[in-house]
Design a protein that fits this description.
mainly beta; four-stranded antiparallel β-sheet; about 60% strand; globular
């Protein structure tokens, strides 16, 4: 993951990623945009070592968890999300 941006005015959280796709055989930037976000936790303790790669993603009702390969878990409550490429 490259960055996290929280827009207070419209309650959205945008996570920016570099994604390697087999189809394009290259890396492309994408945004995971959560809408109606009411709670956000972003620890950065790196208990498993420094890494900006995602390990797992999970969802339970409106609770989303993104486990990083560093061992940190980004957790947020959101009404939904979109995963879109970033136009250059």
């Amino acid at each position: 993951m490259k960055s996290v941006h929280y827009n207070w005015d419209d309650s959205t959280v945008s996570l920016t990623f570099s994604v390697y796709t087999l189809e394009l055989k290259s890396t492309t930037s994408y945004q995971l945009i959560f809408e109606g976000c009411s709670d956000l936790h972003i620890p950065h303790l790196s208990e498993w070592g420094e890494s900006s790669s995602v390990n797992t993603l999970s969802m339970d009702n409106e609770l989303y968890k993104i486990e990083m390969q560093s061992g940190d878990v980004i957790a947020l409550k959101s009404k939904g999300f979109n995963f879109v490429p970033i136009a250059l």
